[in-house]
Amino acid sequence: MRTLSTALNNALGAVVTRPAYLVYIGLTSPLRYSTHSSPTFMGKTWTAYDVAVNGLRVGALAISGSLIFGNADSGFSAIALGSEGLTDKQVKIWGYDAAATASDNDIVLLCDGVGGACDIALDRVKLTVRDPSEYKVGPRRLVSPMYGYTTNIPAGRSITINNITFQVMRGR
Amino acid sequence: MAYPNLPISVNSKVNRMDGTEVVRASNGMAKPRRMYPSDKWEFDILHELSSAQWTTLNNHYLGAEGTTSFQFTWPTTGTAYTVVYAGPPNPVEQPGGWFKVYVKLAQV
Questions:
Q1: pTM of the model as a whole
Q2: A chain contacts of residue B31, beta-carbon cutoff 8 Å
């Protein structure tokens, strides 16, 4: 069970709350942005930036939602179109309240995903957030009599585990 | 260079913003969320200027301050704000060679 810190609990119980997010993007020089002011978290200063968290849903092995970055100065589109790009880069999002930032424990991890599709417009850049396991192939070894599997599921069969659909494919 | 020291009409307006969003809980209680770290101000300024004063203001806009931030002191409070032009000053010529000039400034 997740336990909120006393400071965060008090902040969330205030008459006026000040909700905010931290956004991390794992480029070679990581981007650390805050939707509010510039707090210190995990020993780093997180820069106040024009970024909004939109429709974030985190489930078992599935993440949906997006990050919307202001692009009025074309700064973030330059990052998105840069040599590294944003696809498959680690994207982590934390939630916090601006009244409770003294301790790392006041800031709560909401999502640990990767960058997906990037929609670039003149005024904003929309980055879809996906689960790291999406589109991956598993298991990472072939299932065959050679490895002791003498009764196999026919190729083409779909199996749903924890709301994730796996397609059984014939190995090469 | 700071905003020129020109007479400002009492009919000028300010818009003060703190990013507060109020939602109602299921029992009707207001649940405000304040999204800005600090208040931001926008100024809708009305000047009534002579031709020379209008030239001073126009030159300020056409100079470096047209594309960068500068200091503006709101006379009601005497507080200085760092602002940018939110659009060009719009002059309306009046009888007798005077100008009504509308200026929009936005705090950065």
A1: 0.79
A2: 17
Whether B86 and B62 have beta carbons less than 8 Å apart is answered as no
Q: Which residues of B touch A15 (CB under 8 A)?
A: 32
pLDDT band at A134, cuts 50/70/90? Answer: confident
Instruction: Output the CA torsion sign for A76, A79, A85, A86.
Output: negative
Kindly give the residue spans of alpha helices, DSSP state H, lying in chain B.
Answer: 51-62
pLDDT tens digits along A25-64: 999 999 999 999 999 999 999 999 999 999 999 987 889 9
CA distances from B60 to A142, B36, B56, B89 (A): 73, 30, 6, 10
Distance from CA of B33 to the nearest CA of A (A): 5
Q: Is the pLDDT of residue A138 over 70?
A: no
Residues of chain A in contact with residue B20, where contact means CB-CB under 8 angstroms, are 16
Choose among A18, A35, A48: nearest Cβ to B34: A18
